[in-house]
Amino acid sequence: MATGLLTQIRTLFEGDPGVRKVADDPVLSAELLLLFRMILADGVASDSEMVAFRRICTQAFGIAEQSIDAVIEYLNEFGYETNGSQAIAMFRDLDVERRRQLARHMADIAKADAHLAENEVKLLRRTLDLLGISPVDVVKPAT
């Protein structure tokens, strides 16, 4: 019980740990913003796309499930400061596997609702071009 109370007090003064993690990592912030742009590319944020986004947050980035709503709120409040081109630019100098991971995450979001909208395909294609990633790399399993 004391540990839970200390965690609550720390969160009160320091903010949500998931939000701190995202705020302290510009590349992670950029990736989450790009994933959100993919969710919204077809004009509808479907439940299946949000489930995929939450899964990526927890499994790939170690963001606790209870922090994801606060992370989404953070992205909504501060994401307007970064456009898609700026977010993609943060990945250009990263190793190719990290760029592939971004592309796979975006494809996972696009496929989540079992319908690839034209705008989702365009956004993914443009992102792949800017990152220098082949579409084949997106469908191959991660190494």
From TrEMBL:
Domain Co-chaperone DjlA N-terminal intervals: 33-138
Pfam families, alphabetically?
TerB (PF05099)
Q: What SUPFAM superfamilies does the database record attribute to this sequence?
A: TerB-like (SSF158682)
What superkingdom heads the lineage?
Bacteria
Q: What is this protein called?
A: Tellurite resistance protein B-like protein
Record organism: Aminobacter niigataensis
